[in-house]
Amino acid sequence: MKEKITSYQFLAIMFLVPYGSAGLFFLTPETKNDVWIALLFYAVVSIIIQMIYISLFNKYPKDSIVQYLPKVYGKFIGFILSIAYIGYFVYNAGRNLRDFTELIEVFSLTRAPRYVIEIIFMLVITYAVYKGIENIGSMAQMGVVIIISSTILIIVLLLISKGCVEFANLLPILHQGFINVVLKGWKLSMFPYGEFIAMTMLYPVLIEKTRLKKTVIFTSILEGTFLALNNMLFIVALGYKFARVNNYPLLETLRLVHIGDFLNRLDIIFVVVLMLGGFFKISILIYVSALGISQVFKTKKWGAICSILGIIVIIISDVIAKTYPEHIYTGWHFVLTYISLPVVVIIPVMTLIVYYLKKLIKA
Questions:
Q1: ∠ CA(12), CA(33), CA(36), 5° rounding?
Q2: Alpha carbon distances (Å) from 208 to 8, 59, 67, 158, 197
Q3: Which of 62, 30, 50, 270 has the alpha carbon at shortest distance from 154?
Q4: Residues of 165-186 as b/e, b for ≥16 C-beta within 10 angstroms?
Q5: H helices then E strands: how many in the chain?
Q6: What does the CA dihedral 172, 173, 177, 178 come to, rounded to 10 degrees?
Q7: Fewer C-beta neighbours within 10 Å, C or N terminus of the chain?
Q8: What pLDDT does residue 252 have?
Q9: How is residue 171 annotated by DSSP?
């Protein structure tokens, strides 16, 4: 598929991939009320990691990550690694589908079976993926404006609502010490920032490749800033002790907004905006999965790939955990350490080392 996206579309997609679900949660509760500092720090770390991705891409400017891995490691090992990345993207899509269907089930359609919500959601997403990245990118340009504007609106409404905000909740700052905050917050480099690995599948379709590095740096800083603001909002509105144990602190925060007798219960309205973020995130993850399959297996049956992936993602969403708390626990304590860490950091670093070693041996 010969599709192209602009730098702004790339920026919008890149921003929405982590923010689509990360905006829902209080991240790294271990860092307590210093989570916003950890988020800003690991936004910079994510830029360093992405410079490794870009360095590899510059050596294979026409290839996605699943295409150049066999060129670096050889056909057999490279094929296994490529399949592992595709599997990671599909699994991640399944996890996010579970997040958002649980959200809808709890706050909107309380009597609807989860599988019905999943099927309806996935029908829309599968169609979007089938239409291609150019269409997703065009919609993402509007989606990112809506989501950023909504975040700013939430902040303004909380500030003008009486008794909703207590800035003293942010104090004391760095009472654990900066080093402890950094050490306790290391999983932030896996989630949300580690999800930038999906963008390595889209580097080749970027029209203005010379602007890739600047776009990545700017988007990472923008992502870190808004995620930091989001988590600061949870702290000043709810207090970190309550925010860290709540499944959906963003919606609990929205429930505090009360201006007169006419502006309240905004959580129901903002569920629609949150679902928009979920739509883009899952769409992009399924798209890069489908693209990876078409590249690795050299098939042009795009519609069939999209349909099959849609079904697989629904199955994954249902079987990964019996309950939502189990789903969250597995993701935070197992997936980030044993799956995301190798995929996001270890394999790309090793790939760059192997590339230079092969080049050195040939010289």
A1: 25
A2: 10, 17, 20, 40, 19
A3: 270
A4: beeebeeeeeebeeeebbebbb
A5: 15, 0
A6: 170
A7: C
A8: 84
A9: P
The pair of structure tokens assigned to 183 is 């050490």
Cα 219 to Cα 154: distance, rounded to the nearest angstrom: 21
For 175, the token pair is 């009472």
Structure tokens at 76: 């057999």
- Residue 46, both tokens: 């994510």
| CA count, 13 A, side-chain hemisphere, 140 | 30
pLDDT at 156 over 80: yes
Compute and round to an integer the Cα radius of gyration of the chain. 20
Tokens of 94: 């399944």
Q: How far apart are CA 178 and CA 211, in angstroms?
A: 33
The CB density around residue 164, as the number of other CB atoms within 10 Å, is: 17
Determine if the pTM surpasses 0.90: yes
Please state whether the peptide bond connecting residue 192 to the residue before it is cis, i.e. omega within 30 degrees of 0. Answer: yes
Q: φ, ψ for residue 218 (rounded to 5)?
A: -60, -45
